[in-house]
Amino acid sequence: LRLVAVLKAILEGEKAAVLKRDRHLPLSFHRRQEELKFSLGLQRLQHRVHEIQALRDGPAGEGPGQDGSLLGSPMTGAAPQELPTLILEAVKELEAAKQQVLKRIQIWKRQQQLAGNGALFEENLAPLQKRCESLVEVYFQLHQQVMAASTELGAELLSRLLERFNEVLSSLVKR
Questions:
Q1: Is the CB of residue 145 less than 8 Å from the CB of residue 52?
Q2: InterPro entries under this entry (predicted)?
Q3: Which of 34, 148, 155, 165 has the fewest CB atoms within 10 Å of its CB?
Q4: 123 φ, ψ to 5°?
């Protein structure tokens, strides 16, 4: 983790130097940066799902075959958290990833409109489709974990979570 922190600091310094020199970066750089942010958020979300499953399967990270570092990772804090808190954090990250996808869809729609006026337009929908599919895949994994943990969550929290899940899926389908 220290190595990652050092590399991140070095890369941020290099990015600041390039920005200072060039004042702006090409659009492809910003698009690539956005893709990397999305994939990082998706990986973090998948990690949350695995943490939830590990917390449900074993007693607080002390089960055989678990190294304990999974639940005590920097993403979740030093001490293992209880299941409802972990699930709420995962749902919040799912909603943030959904917002990134919807933003990208909105940008694509706007570029399509501008193409009618002669602007350049990349019609390739494959990256956008891949984003949607990977987000829906993680959505269903998280939904499955929530349903499996429904007895630990309680009726009120479960209904709120299911409402949030329905909102995520319906907004993705509608847009």
A1: yes
A2: STAT, STAT_TF_alpha, STAT_TF_CC
A3: 155
A4: -85, 0
